[in-house]
Each structure stands twice: as structure tokens, then as C-alpha cells.
Amino acid sequence: MKDASFIPGRLLIDLLADPRKVAGVSLRDWDRLVPLARWVRLLGRLRAGAIDTGVYPDLDGHVRNILDSSWTVAQDQNALMAWEVSRVRDALRGMDVPIVLLKGAAYMLSGLPPARGRFASDLDIMVPIDRITEVEARMTEKGYSTFVHDPYDDHYYRRWMHELPPMVHRRRTTVIDVHHTILPRTTRINLDPRKLFERAVDIPGQGVKRLCDEDLILHSAAHLFCEGEFDLAIRDLCDMNDLFAHFADQKGFGGALLARAQELDLLGPLFYAQRYTHHFFATRHDTPAPQPSAWCVKLMDSLVHRAAIPARPNESTSARRLAAWGLFMRGHFIKMPLPLLAMHLTVKSWLRFTHFVQRLFEKKPQDA
Amino acid sequence: MKVGELTITELGQRLAFGGVDLHVGPIIVRLKTRIASLVENFATLYADYPIDTRTGLADIRVTIDRPKSLRRYLWPLSVFKLEGRQCFEPFALSKAFAMFEWGLNWSVMNDVHWMLNIHSAVVERNGFCAILPAPPGSGKSTLCAALVNRGWRLFSDEMALIQPIDGRIRPMPRPINLKNNAIELMRSYAPDAVFGPLFEYTQKGAVRHMRPPIDSVERMHETALPSWVIFPRYEKDSPPKLTHYSKAQTLIRLAQNAFNYSILRKVGFDTLATLMDRCDCYEFVYSNLDDAVETFNNLKPTEAAGAVSP
User: Rounded to the nearest 5°, which phi and psi values hold at B37?
Assistant: First the structure.
């Protein structure tokens, strides 16, 4: 029967670290694993791992069917995303503005390892801040519009965030985030986005760019360790781990990464990226980033070791929730100066409260 | 073990604690619920279905329960959750079973993509399948119900599941969803069939489920090749008219009626193209069910579907 000490999150991490192990997972364990892997969008990734290591044909047919379903959806989303990239490129044609793809879209169109079986949700692109008004106007003219209609949320994006409110084309479904840098405007980290554009590289044949190799990792690290969204932490760590492994063959990459982290004021996030890919996936790093103060690291360890182990909301322990909340607060603290943060959280709670009150008095739902 | 071998109390206990893993054709559905009416309807309509005790891996995990919010004290409601996530507005508590049926269709449509899934009824006889795609209201379910009460095997009244690898169809027999006038019609046409309760005033009008024939349920793992695609249309007082229909048009209409044709991309197209090579395609207008069944009984399977020519 059910084994109380069995933690699906730990099994998932084990399998990501060593995909050959998927061949040994029992059907009962798959039963707990599948909903979790789906939740953190890593089911397609498990299939990719099984294919790469050659164990896929040994899997139970029932498991293969489930993995195949997930893979099919991921492939379709990737194709939709590639199409959307071409639409955005055409929409901005003639403006002479560099379009830098971020995260999933960049991995996919550059054929980088994290793209295998990855569920790309939104299309993230980055354009220079001095052109962003023009870009938004052109995209609106070409049929894109935002679906953020709450005035406070709109204000929040434009005034404090690193992106416009998300947009979507009126005839398609892919959500597009147009960034002008990789961290919120209000962050304590002193990062000049012009440096990102300077070293961005062309993606061959696509008419768009991606961040340079070092910046790919640094962006992922900054995103995870400076924004505080830890729900998909394991996916982000997995992405970074793939990138570390992929670039490790390049001579001098470790040193260049370190220098670049220094230049972009991202040594902290790089340190944690190295530390936790080592912790969860046993990845070795030859050129470690300098360690922040010992008590900081200790505190981070105690939070990340709990919060990064994936769990669905109903399987999450209170220790994990508390750790995730701590990281969320830490992220917000880095994201915004304290007074601004206090104001933002007050406004958000107030809006949530009024929304809640409204819902209480909502009329009975349509009897179906 | 079959659902019907459990007493209603045992079944209720299992559904409340841990859930019941049900074999429904190629997939395993785990249902958890504490709603008494749902347990009762489930026991009636799924009596012949095997409960899985060996696999332990479910494809679809459904929980249907009363909502936790304060509203529950004012209006008795039931909430459908797929893998812990609420997917629809709540239903009236008494209609929980109808919601289970629709929700299960929706879940298969959303999560099962290793087969091409076309919105259509499928029935089989002598090893050959007829696919009956049609928009709601065309009498697809009624015709399907009539056929399975006259010797055809039920694959599904709602979805054709085609394996891309060999083009064979997987049965997914489920209770047949009859609506409005079809309910009384079927009660007199198949007086021995078992029916669930009548759910009035749903989004689709009155709904009543008919238990599938036991033979269809027991043979739920037996696949078959498709031989005919037939677009049925009920027309008052019309004599049965079966007319050949263009394969190119059929392919397009099937693609439009498929739930995951676009997600499967090239695989979806290839699967449909192979299907078209195997099948004869028709439009069929009818008014009388006996005539319709006779027309179907006279269909000749195609050689491409494996029929041996005389």
C-alpha cells in the first residue's frame, strides 16, 4: 500500500539527475509522479531523458502512452511558439529593432538541451527600452493587445516591472511578454540592459537574437533567485543544469561566466545556481562564484532545500510552504525597495479583499 | 473484480477513500467522491466495468465533491476536479453523475493525445467499425444506441480513438448519453436496456444515460479496423438514404470534428489519410430506426479494412 515516506518530488529530482532510472520506477510510483511532473511541466522532459538514455522502449506501455501524450502537447506548443516568433519578427520588420528571445523560445530555436520536451508557456522577448513604446504601438497595430485590464496591474507592469503587460494576438493564443531588461526596474541589482544587447547573438536563419551563452545561465539564475517565484524552481534548476553541462566543453567558459556575472552584478544568483544544481543534481563547478556571507547561505540552504523539492499544492508540507513564502518575500525584497514593497502588498491585499467581498455577494451560478 | 460485485456500501467506501480505478477501454479512470447520488448512479451504469487492482497507475484522476465554501449551505452543489484542479462551474448536487460523464469526456479530450480523437460515435460488427461523426443534435447518439441494441458492439457514442501506429480503433465504451426526445424513443425501442435517472434542465435539455450492453464492456480491449465513415442525419419521415460522399470532403469534416487533430499535427493528418484509404464514406438520412439498422446490417466491409473479397 501507500508508503508514507515516499516523496514524489525527491523521486522526480532523482530521475532528472539520472534519467536511466526511469526504467526502474514502479507503476504505483508513476501514479504519484505523473501528476507532479505535469504540474511542474517536466513530464515531457522525463520522456526526453528516457529517449536520450535509450531506456524508453523498456518502459511499460501504459507509461509510454502518458509520456507520449505530454510530449505531443509540448511539441505542438513549441511549433506554435516558433510560429509566433516569426509573426512578431514580421510585425516588427523594418523598425531595425533587435528582438532578443528569452528562455524557452531561445532554447528551442537555438536547439539547446533544455528545450527537449520543455513546455514553453509564454513567449518572452526583449527589446531596448528606448524603443519599447514604438514596439508596443506597432504590435497593437498588427493585432496584438494586452489582456490586463485592471488599471492597478497595468500600472504595476509599466512603472515597476521589466516588461509590458502580457500581450496576445487577437487570432492566436500564445501569450507574449515584451521585456526591456531581465529584472524589474525597481530591483537592487545594478544591471545595465545595454550590456545584454551588446553581446546578444543571432539565431541563424530566424532573424532574431538570443542572449549570449553566459547570459542565458545568468538570466535563468537571476529569474529564480531574484524574483522569488519558486513553484517551478526545479524546472529552472534543471534548465541551468543542462546549460552548465552543455557549455562546460567550451574552453574557459567557467571563467568567462564568472567575469560576466561580476560585470552584470549577478554573482549572488550565479553562486546559488551553482550551489543548488550541485546540491540537487551533483553537478561539479570548477570555477565557483564567491560565497556571500555564511549566515545568508545557511538561511538560503534551509529555504531552498525545502522549497525547491517540487510538490503539488495538496501534497505540500507546511515546512515547504513556509520556505516558499520566505523565498517569495526575499524575492520581493530584492525586487523592490521596502516602502514600495509595503505599498504594493497593501494595495494588492486590499484589491484581493474587495474582490473576495464581491464574490461573496455574487449571484448563484447558472444551474447546469 | 467488477463494480457490480460490490455492495453499494462497499462501493461508497471505496469511492470515498482512495477512489476506484476503473478500466474504461484503453485508459484507467480514478474516481473519488462522497456524493451518495453519484455512487448510486455509478453503481447502476458502470456495473459491468472491471475495477483495476493491479496497475495502480491512473490516466485520469477525477474528484467530485461538494464545494468547501460557505455557498454549500445555501445551494447543494458538486464540483468536478481533474488532478485536483476545478475545471468547470459547479453543478447541482443531484446532477453529479451527468457532470462526471461530461467531465470525463472533457478530461480525455484534454489529456489523452497518443491517439487521434474524433468527435463521433463508433460501432462495430463482424470485426469492422463504422464511424459516425456528426454535430450535436443530428441523432448520432440515438442511432448509435439503436445499433448497439440490435447486435452492433459499442465502441463509443462520443469519440473515435484511432491509434496512429496501425490505424486501429480503440473501444471506449461508456454509458450512452441520450437527450430529450431520444430518451422515450429508446425506452420503447430497447425496453430491456438499463437506464440511469432522468436529469432535467441541463445545458443540453433533458439527459438520460443508457447502460452499454455487457458484451461491449467485456470486450473493451478488442480493437478493430474502420471500414465506413457515415455522416448520419435524422430527417422527419424520410426513407433511409445512403449516398456516397467524397473522401476529400470527409477528411476535412473529420479534421474539423477532431479534438486533437491540430495538436497531433503531421501524425494527425497521416492517421486521417490512412483512415480514408480504408473506409467507404457516406451520408445517411433516416427517420425510422429499424430501417436504419437494416441499412447498416447490409453494409459491405471494404477490402482495405481487411475484408476478403468473394
Answer: -65, -35
CA pair distance B208, B177, nearest whole angstrom? 6
Q: How far off is chain B from A303, nearest CA to CA, in Å?
A: 26
Nearest-angstrom CA–CA distance, A59 and A65: 10
Residue numbers of B between 89 and 108 with CB closer than 8 Å to A = 89-92, 95, 99
ipTM over 0.90: yes
B7 touches chain A (CB under 8 A): no
- Candidates A15, A8, A100, A89; CA nearest to A50 is A15
Q: B91 exposed, middle or buried (CB, 10 Å; 0-12, 13-18, 19+)? A: buried
> What CATH number matches the domain at B116-176+211-305, 3.40.50, 1.10.10, 3.10.450, 2.60.40?
3.40.50
Contacts of B264 in chain A (CB under 8 A): 72, 76
Average pLDDT for B189-218:
93
Domains along the sequence of chain A with CATH: 8-358 (3.30.460.40)
CA B147/CA B189 separation, integer angstroms? 11
Nearest to B263 among A39, A73, A364 (CB): A73
Residue A343 has pLDDT above 50, yes or no: yes
Q: Which residue of B has its CA nearest to A68?
A: B114
Q: What is the pLDDT of residues B86-138, one digit of tens each?
A: 988 888 899 999 999 999 999 999 999 999 999 999 999 999 999 999 887 78
CA-closest candidate to residue A236, choices A196, A189, A272 = A272
Q: Which residue of B has its CA nearest to A27?
A: B57
Please give the average per-residue pLDDT across B60-75, as a whole number. 82
Residue tagged 530591483 (cell numbers)? A187
| CB within 8 Å: A364 and B75 | yes
CA neighbor of B288 nearest in space, from B137, B184, B142, B136: B142
Which residues belong to CATH 3.40.50 in chain B? 116-176+211-305
Distance (Å, rounded) from C-alpha B102 to C-alpha B199? 13
